[in-house]
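Q: I'm writing up a methods section and want to include an example of the input and output format. Could you take the sequence below and give the corresponding predicted structure tokens, formatted cleanly so I can copy it straight into the document?
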Amino acid sequence: MPKTERILKVMQRVYEKQSFTVSQMAEEFGVSCRTMLRYLHELSELGVPLYANEGRHGGYSILNTRQRSLPEPAETGLQRLVKPGFHLVGMEIKVPFTAYYMTQALKPKLWTELSSRIQEIRYPRSTRGQDWIAAVLSRGPVYHYIAGIEVTAIGTIPPGMTSLTLPTREYIVYVHEGGTGREDTDQSFIYVMQQMKQRGLHYNPEMYGLERRSRLGDDRVQIYIPVAHSVNPGALHE
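A: Here is the clean output for your methods example:
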């Protein structure tokens, strides 16, 4: 099993169990306690809110001051669809995944600057009622975030901007509402992973996911999770 996939599975179990010991998790995943401790340290560096419990029966727990269960992220459930290939032009952040928290302060500034320069982008797909789309590669060693808009063709790229062409791909789509902090988005993500697993579907961490907003600053965001297997002709189409 690739390391990235194993880390994702460990993260999922951490959120499911809430409290656990290193030895329990090591036994469940068939690895040494030293290896599991390394995984937990990596999750902590990636922003998973773990804290150590002291005492004879100590271990690790998820720090969750609101003491809430995993939320169902969409009012109408998950939607399975195929999104046709498209071009995106916008502004990017690319940092080591361990610097993820730094991007939380940079993203609003990125969107504000993009909004102020939107007229520089050639061939926008829509000239009114513009959707704001982020392409996100967020579960590997490098965190890559492109804040942009869809275009019908790649023209001259404005200074300081970049372009990305994504192929036709099947996604699971859900609506995330509320907080955009790592704890909130991870809980929604883990819930969706559980639902996908029940449907026999798997997430592809090597492909870009998408975030779609109808207006900047909106707390209601459509999240597109790329499905690992090939396109299913019977899926719903956008």
